[in-house]
Design goal:
alpha/beta, TIM Barrel, 2 domains, 8-stranded parallel β-sheet, 10 strands, globular
């Protein structure tokens, strides 16, 4: 019997993960590293995929004509090809502009909703130009600070309408919804992957609407990242992941993958490996930020280390005694299973 070749994992991150040292509570801790120089960092760190916001591709796009936007996107396409990088996704940045302070797709203002749609179309045009197959919707301000501020039923209708308009605008693009329960809003309208997949199945082409799960976002919702990923995988709807870690129910910390809860990180890798993630071209995305006091320019060790932690945990997953695990499950001996799991992680026989 032919042995199945092990999955080869590909990794990605976004230019925002090369932190520039800004700190709202004190002085900047690091010098700015130029955005255009970040492309050259990827391959030397072992990454093949680049994540983008629309204005990471085309800075200042709101002040440019359609022709200028496509020309700039074309330049980035050439840079990507030269560096041997794949553009994993492009996300419309719908939380910085004045028109998005109270939401984009769910804003009470019709003019603000119109801005969100025009910006989304530009984002899709950019993605098409650089040959990216996916749009990520991080619905950052699609929520409220007080429940009475918006008609929640109408807000969900508007989110679904926006998704359907995107599907119609480009018949090939995929939409990956990235849920998060809070921050910058007090309470978001799509806090979990269950909410995201409900929107997917309600859409006019659910096969093109998937989810992107970030470890820290799941933890902020009080949920286990590996279970959230397993849920999306069970539906064939895990478009991508953002792996990191989180120290409790605080702000979005984006710590190194496995830095807080190594066992939880092990289970994330186990779920991905056991369910064939990455066998259809998916990336393991990292959304990690270095610690505020860290010196240097550019600072990239957090990215290199998180990738290494994933691969070390992958080896732990692949050397797990599956027969023994099944024996413990069959016997309902979960104490023995836990003991074996912890000893395996610690390298103890």
């Amino acid at each position: 019997m032919k042995t199945k070749a092990p999955t080869t994992y590909r990794f990605s991150f976004g230019p925002w993960n090369v932190s520039e040292g800004g700190d709202p509570f004190g002085p900047d801790s690091r010098a700015i590293f130029p955005h255009e120089q970040k492309f050259a960092l990827y391959r030397q760190l072992g990454f093949e995929g680049m994540q983008f916001h629309d204005d990471d591709v085309v800075p200042g796009l709101d002040s440019l004509t359609a022709k200028q936007i496509l020309a700039k996107a074309g330049e980035v396409k050439k840079i990507l090809a030269g560096e041997g990088l794949t553009p994993e996704f492009v996300a419309p940045r719908l939380w910085f502009a004045e028109q998005t302070v109270d939401g984009g797709y769910t804003a009470n203002s019709a003019a603000d909703r119109a801005y969100a749609w025009e910006r989304t179309k530009k984002c899709i045009d950019i993605a098409r130009t650089i040959k990216s197959k996916a749009i990520v919707l991080w619905l950052a301000r699609e929520g409220s600070y007080i429940r009475e501020a918006k008609d929640a039923k109408l807000a969900y209708d508007r989110l679904l309408e926006a998704i359907n308009k995107m599907l119609a605008y480009d018949p090939k693009i995929e939409i990956w919804i990235e849920p998060k329960p809070n921050e910058p809003t007090d309470q978001a309208y799509v806090p979990t992957i269950g909410h995201a997949l409900a929107l997917s199945y309600a859409s006019k082409d659910h096969q093109r609407v998937k989810g992107l799960i970030e470890s820290a976002h799941a933890i902020l919702a009080g949920l286990d990242p590996s279970d959230e990923m397993a849920f999306a995988l069970a539906h064939g709807k895990l478009g991508s992941v953002h792996l990191n870690d989180q120290n409790g129910l605080k702000f979005d910390e984006d710590k190194n993958f496995g830095a807080v809860n190594l066992r939880a990180a092990f289970n994330v890798v186990r779920v991905l490996e056991d369910n064939g993630y990455c066998t259809h071209g998916e990336f393991v995305g990292l959304d990690v930020k270095t610690m505020r006091p860290q010196r240097g320019c550019p600072v990239t060790d957090h990215l290199k280390n998180s990738r290494a932690f994933f691969l070390m945990l992958l080896e732990k997953v692949r050397t797990l005694d599956r027969k023994l695990v099944q024996q413990y499950r069959d016997a309902r001996d979960y104490e023995a299973l836990e003991c074996y799991t912890l000893k395996h992680l610690m390298g103890v026989k």
